[in-house]
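Sequence in, structure out. Go.
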Amino acid sequence: MPAVTASAGAAIRKAILTALAAVSFAGASFATQAQENPQEPQERLYIFTENYPPYNTSTTGENFAHSAEDITGICSEMVKAALKRVNYDIVMKMRAWNYAYNWVQGRENHGLFCTARTDERENQFQWVGPLAPIEWTLFAAPDSTLELDSLEDAKDLRIAGYRGDVMSDYLIDQGFNVITNVSGDVNPRRLVLGQADLWVTDGLVGPLVAEEEHGIEGLKPVLVFRETPMYLAVSNETDPAIVADLQAAVDAAKAAGEFDAITAKYQ
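Output:
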């Protein structure tokens, strides 16, 4: 997944706007899946996500959403494409990452997307996917002259991150100087104000948030140091048969070419 250029950023914004324009139709389709399948839904599933454009985006402009109709983005569309293939009553909500991550664990029939699957998290969930990958990227301010040959070169630099983020947690565990906030949205501003030397985030997310939230263009990608697949993480208290149904639905959506079509819209 390449770093986002100005033209790529415009393409992503166009894809999001297209998704927003179509959300009424898509939402109606998702909401009426039970009507298309005459069988009574077997179980109610509670699926959470966070506002993390372009992967998950609130159509209301807020950092939260109370229904599937108000949620779009790369991962969100992939999950919806899969969920239309199963006979469950779906409740989808968007909440702050830390809240959702902690809420889902320990609760039956709860899931969270898109969650990076790492060794540290492996036993905390049952995993459905993969969905889309994220590139762990260190960004600098547009006028920065910083260059890194390896991650180790950033050891003495100030890195902006946010609490509960897999990339931030990894760097903290490795002894890096990470400045964490409740949200990552303020981090582009930290770069241009000189409060941080680098910002760790996904390669697609960084330029989009910088431009959309702060009007900052030309964010400099300094180093991509890891790529991680993202999944729908399902609580360990959920029946494995449900997880198997969800995995089969993801596989079917992929085989039908729906995931590729979704990804293409945002490139």
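Check: Residues 35 and 264 are 30 Å apart (CA to CA). The chain has two domains: 6-133+229-265, 135-227.
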